[in-house]
């Protein structure tokens, strides 16, 4: 999301207990011995721990901006019935719900339309809706999460009385103009990413960022930007699709870490990080980890953007920390 996804857009030796040190060159305790006493300080490099299950460490200092899912509607077609239906979807889209929706397509190999129908049914999203009429065209971008969400929107809008259809387009550069022209009506979007896209469009590519880690502040910035394009933003979901930094559950258990602050505090000698090649120069990636959390990066491996290379590097113990996305189906716990 921020940085590495255009649409929606974390080693090498076993860390030793403080009381016992059999250290190698790349993973060791360091300190200053004096005539008056023992080592005055120590640094522990936390080595990777291979494993098949991943957990996202909580971003407790809010390094990432709030890329919550948010319905975006062409203002001319917005009605109370449409708002009520899509607000109901947003209320049901917790982080675990979105991860489960992605698991249905990415792991269980269901088609997005089928995964959407199962989610709508299990969440009871079609009950108590009425008042809709006329056609509503929902946009799906060219990745499965967007396609599943667009079908969720369409199913719920149909239950409200609209004649809802799904049209697949490609990227934000394509579907935003289509919304503005009136070719389509609704899209499941990502709050921070859309805020910055519209901010850059209105104020230039070097404009100061308007998106914030706080979703309420991001929506407050997004609303007037969207209004200038003839668009309205509705209630955001709790679910996000944004950068998260992930370890194996075996690593988290071994070192007793659940947050990025805990990681930095316990792994004072650093960890190895795997992420896209541009990560070392990006505010939301290595630079942010170092500045916001004072986390030492003991080594960096250029991988893909939340894809199979990153996951395999975690599984095999090539890196301790990798960057994935918060809605990734492989995560066993919500960030």
Describe it for me?
This protein is of the alpha/beta class and 335 residues long. It has helices spanning 80-92, 95-106, 112-122, 144-159, 172-181, 191-203, 215-227, 249-255, 260-266, 286-293, 308-315, and strands at residues 54-56, 69-74, 135-140, 163-168, 186-190, 231-233, 243-248, 271-275, 297-302, 321-325. The chain has a five-stranded mixed β-sheet, sandwiched between helices. α4 links the parallel β3 and β4. α2 packs antiparallel against α3 (112-122) and α6 crosses α7 (215-227). The protein is globular, with a radius of gyration of 22 Å. The two termini are 15 Å apart. Mean pLDDT is 89; it is low at 1-41.
Kindly summarize this structure in a few lines.
With 335 residues, the chain is of the alpha/beta class. It has helices at 80-92, 95-106, 112-122, 144-159, 172-181, 191-203, 215-227, 249-255, 260-266, 286-293, 308-315, and strands spanning 54-56, 69-74, 135-140, 163-168, 186-190, 231-233, 243-248, 271-275, 297-302, 321-325.
Using brief descriptors, characterize the structure shown.
335 residues, alpha/beta, 5-stranded mixed beta sheet, 3-stranded antiparallel beta sheet, 11 helices, 10 strands, 35% helix, 15% strand, disordered N terminus
How much of the sequence lies in strands comes to 15-25%
The helix content is 25-40%
Global Rg: 22 Å
- Largest sheet report: 5 strands, mixed
Number of strands: 10
Strand and helix layout:
Layout: E1 54-56, E2 69-74, H1 80-92, H2 95-106, H3 112-122, E3 135-140, H4 144-159, E4 163-168, H5 172-181, E5 186-190, H6 191-203, H7 215-227, E6 231-233, E7 243-248, H8 249-255, H9 260-266, E8 271-275, H10 286-293, E9 297-302, H11 308-315, E10 321-325
Parallel strand pairs: 3-4, 8-9, 8-10
Antiparallel strand pairs: 1-7, 2-5, 2-6, 7-10
Helix pairs in contact: 1-4, 2-3, 3-4, 6-7
């Amino acid at each position: 999301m921020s940085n590495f996804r255009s649409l929606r857009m974390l080693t090498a030796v076993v860390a030793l207990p403080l009381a016992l040190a059999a250290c190698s060159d790349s993973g060791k305790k360091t300190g200053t011995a004096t005539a008056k006493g023992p080592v005055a300080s120590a640094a522990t490099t936390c080595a990777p721990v291979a494993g098949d299950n991943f957990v996202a460490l909580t971003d407790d200092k809010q390094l990432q901006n709030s890329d919550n899912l948010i319905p975006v509607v062409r203002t001319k077609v917005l009605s109370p019935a449409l708002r009520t239906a899509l607000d109901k979807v947003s209320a049901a889209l917790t982080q675990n719900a979105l991860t489960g929706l992605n698991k249905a397509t990415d792991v269980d190999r269901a088609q997005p339309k089928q995964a959407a129908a199962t989610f709508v049914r299990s969440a009871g999203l079609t009950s108590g809706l009425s008042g809709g009429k006329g056609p509503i065209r929902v946009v799906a971008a060219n990745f499965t999460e967007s396609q599943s969400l667009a079908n969720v929107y369409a199913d719920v809008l149909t239950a409200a009385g609209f004649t809802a259809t799904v049209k697949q387009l490609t990227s934000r550069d394509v579907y935003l103009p289509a919304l503005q022209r009136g070719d389509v009506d609704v899209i499941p979007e990502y709050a921070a990413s859309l805020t910055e896209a519209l901010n850059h469009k209105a104020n230039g590519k070097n404009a100061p960022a308007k998106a914030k880690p706080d979703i309420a502040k991001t929506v407050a910035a997004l609303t007037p930007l969207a209004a200038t394009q003839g668009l309205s933003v509705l209630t955001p979901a709790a679910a996000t699709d944004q950068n998260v930094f992930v370890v194996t559950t075996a690593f988290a258990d071994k070192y007793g870490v659940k947050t990025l602050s805990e990681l930095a505090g316990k792994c004072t000698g650093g960890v190895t990080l795997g992420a896209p090649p541009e990560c070392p120069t990006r505010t939301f990636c290595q630079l942010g980890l170092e500045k916001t959390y004072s986390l030492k990066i003991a080594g960096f491996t250029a991988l893909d953007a939340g894809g199979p290379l990153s996951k395999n590097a975690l599984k095999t113990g090539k890196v301790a920390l990798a960057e994935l996305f918060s809605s990734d189906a492989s995560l066993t716990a919500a960030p």
